[in-house]
Amino acid sequence: MSLFKHHARIETNALLLTIGIVVTVSVGGLVEVAPLFSIESTIERVEGVRPYSPLEQAGRDIYLREGCYNCHSQMIRPFKDEAERYGHYSLAAESKYDHPFQWGSKRTGPDLARVGGKYASDWHVRHLIDPRSVVPGSVMPGYPHLMRPLDYSDIGVRLRVLRSVGVPYNDTQIDGAAHDLEEQALADPNAAPPPVMASYPKARLGRAVESPENGPVTEMDALVAYLQVLGTMVDFTQVDPALIRR
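Predicted structure:
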């Protein structure tokens, strides 16, 4: 109580105030950091999380290039209102191959952590070209320029760079990146799964936009493939909450 009684003296004395701040920050830091030494990893133990396919990674690069992260986060917080709107709260494991990750608190538009499979691909196309055609009152700008051909001549190099920071792409995936990208984008979703699915399960197959036969893969195809995989890798109906953390 004496501390509160003499708070005015502390607040008007630079030295005492500095000491108080240092003590407070030190105690708070220990409370937050000390428990981390008792666990093996801060990454949850869940199945299904994989590196992005070449097409998805190309789409993610476009997502970053266009600044989509300025209005959309990919982090659902562990609160009831968030879970009811967006789904299961985000796990660190879901973003372990993201460089950089898209967690954050700034939202002008909805969180996109679980947007995969929520809408049909043609909905995403219409939304990206003219947002107000499907969401009246939206303040999102249109992105019709994404209908242009995708340049993926360096996709193998991009995967190799990601491997250097810990993403577990193997030599076969890197060397065949361009082929895998085309195979995913140009596959018939109603036919037998192509070989690319063995390396990238749950990838969305087929074009996002109608195009002439043998037409080039577009930036729109890549971005929609990325959006359609978000939140789909982990099957939370099969996850025991008690086993999520080590």
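Summary: The longest helix spans residues 14-33.
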